[in-house]
Amino acid sequence: MKNLIFFIYKYYVFFMFLAFEVFALIVLFRFNNYQQASFLNYTASTSSSIYNAINSTTGYFNLKTLNDSLQAENSRLRSQLLQSYYQHGYTTTTVNDTQYKQQYVYISAQVVNNSISKKNNFITIDKGSLHGVKRFDGVICPNGVVGIVWQVTPYYSLIQSVLNSKSNTGAKIKKTGDIGTVTWDGSNALFAQLSNVNTYVPVAIGDEVVSTTQSASYPEEIPIGKIVNIDRNPEKNAYDITILVHTPFSRLKNVYVVRNLFKESQQSAEVKVLEEEAKDHDN
């Protein structure tokens, strides 16, 4: 207390000047309209700037809370979208023809999971046994061959992609009709390999490679890719051919499951032939 009194006594002249100055300003702004208006405008502008700065600062620190609130709202709205509900209905293309018996049925599906960077890649689609999908059905897209149905559950199916080291797809060179087998070496998702094509076949870069009925899972001449490189393999008397696949696996969305209604009949006939050949060999 003693120090405070000493401080005021030491600077009392300054405090008196300050008090008279404040009093003079009050009288000036209170009893003079022009000065009063100027003072109010200035204080309003200053207050607005201060409030804006405060709001910006508090708004910045509240961004996390606001973001969480928006995410919760987005989640609620997305849950109400039609895509969030499982659609039991599906599209199946059929033909009722009395002259030509239908061989293939197409079931439309959407890709829900996909991989292209593994050695053995698989694709999950949103159609299963309840929609008519069966194991070993073929799968295609508007661009070409996709793979083979490998596992089936009531609502989903797992597809063994062409980009799978264990995949073997019967194929042929469209220009010549010579058959071969499309495999994948696991190195690049853009390219696959065509093997078992004899060196006497007139193969050229740019030739189209398509499916063949050698594979009962696909219709005839579904695009697979085009030849981009040809090497001779003298040990096998065959070509080592690289093809650029047509199917855009990295952005695959819409596919069709192909049901070959004659597959069982074809496979049954082929099994009988193999059994007969085995019996003749034993005899």
Provide a descriptive summary of the structure in words.
- The protein has 283 residues and is α+β, with helices and mostly antiparallel strands.
- 34% of the residues lie in helices and 31% in strands.
- It has five helices and 13 strands.
- It has helices at residues 2-10, 12-31, 33-61, 63-79, 263-282; strands spanning 92-93, 104-114, 120-125, 138-141, 144-152, 157-164, 169-173, 179-183, 191-198, 208-211, 223-233, 238-245, 254-260.
- A hairpin with a 5-residue loop joins strand 7 and strand 8.
- The radius of gyration is 39 Å and the shape is rod-shaped.
Relevant terms:
Thrombin, subunit H, single chain, 13 strands, 31% strand, 34% helix, 6-stranded antiparallel beta barrel, rod-shaped, 283 residues, alpha+beta, 6-stranded antiparallel β-barrel
CATH architectural designation of one domain: Beta Barrel
Uncertain stretches: none
Strand content: 25-35%
Q: What integer value in Å does the Rg equal?
A: 39 Å
